[in-house]
Amino acid sequence: MTLDYMPGFGNDFETEALPDALPQGQNSPQKCNYGLYAEQLSGSPFTAPRGTNERSWLYRIRPSVRHTRRFKAIELPLWRSAPAHHEAELALQQLRWDPLPIPNEQTDLLTGIRTITTAGDVMTQAGMATHVYVFNENMEDDYFFNADGEMMFVPQEGGITIFTEMGKMDVLPGEICIVPRGMMFKAGLKGGPARGYLCENYGAKFTLPGRGPIGANCLANPRDFKTPVAAFEDKESPCTVHIKWCGRFFTTGIGHSPLDVVAWHGNYTPYKYDLSTFSPVGAILFDHPDPSIFTVLTAPSEEAGTANIDFVIFPPRWLVAEHTFRPPWYHRNIMSEFMGLVRGQYDAKEEGFVPGGMSLHNMMLPHGPDQSGFEKASNADLKPHKLDNTLAFMFETRYPQQVTAFAASLDTMQDDYIDCWTGLERKFDGTKDPK
Known about the structure:
- This protein has 435 residues and is mainly beta.
- It folds into two domains: 201 residues, Jelly Rolls (Sandwich); 137 residues, Jelly Rolls, CATH 2.60.120.
- Strands 1, 7, 8, 10, 11, 12, 13, 14, 18 and 26 form a ten-stranded antiparallel β-sheet that branches.
- Strand 19 and strand 20 form a beta hairpin.
- It is globular and about 90 Å long.
């Protein structure tokens, strides 16, 4: 697989799988080379400002209207959409789960998506859903596009190959990829069975956060995002197209592959990112910075500074500040935090939070280090220390996250999770002179 560097969000790219398949000087010529059809895929309103206007021109073997014959409704019962209020009879609480097992029966990506939480409303294009995917079979003649939102894949075990209309992306644990709203793709395995996390973003697309006082450098740099080069399937055999639209699923049969784009140019593209290229910043004297300094991508809302979704990571990094409690403080937050662990250990939860697991701390519910983590951090020798072999992340949203019936009934839910704070006993001594 070959990928082009993505020099900046909003910039145009061009790539072709056959020489001279891409017209020069015209967007949609009267006749395209190779007998291709010109088609535009728009990811924004036509009248959006130049800085946010997104579209790509695709030069394909057939126009995509030939990929969408009469549909019939189907059920994918474990893939849920917001709103899903009161779907689960589960009392409000902090929640944590062990990893979902990978199924033994043949399961592809579509049948292997299990929704954990939903937030907002898919019909108003606000909010999101968090899922775990587990699958052991390639999508060979099945294809999918999501009209409800863009999809962020975060592999945890096993690599995946995402073959989109605009080319292929091989994505390994420690990397992420995003497939835009409405883009056709199929998913395969890169090696053995796969498990990972999936964020379905109903709202404004993910983009890089502003750096503000941080300045020109650090966090995620545009040059490290990569878009695929053109690749296509010229396959004349029965295929099936699956669609998610307004929270429902539909399917149709066609006689060829819909991944038939021979060349493309534009700025509405899939992309991948290696999380090891994220450059974290932090305190270098005292005090504990907020987790927002670890934001990789943000999906903004209409309220400035309040995201529809923030994607935040906690990567390997040096801890050097003095006179400082280094793990995250106990806190309550207006945002709702879904957390996952790709590898290693999370410094605030040294027991019980394992790779492939997940936790949910909903808006304004208190959370923070467990008792052992608090004691260790309170008494640690504050010399420079590197957190290594760790990669945790958060999907956090301004909306409360509703737990699905599937997630609430999982055997992997840790019923004793809240007990990790039981040992935080009273230490107050009003007679002690603070000096």
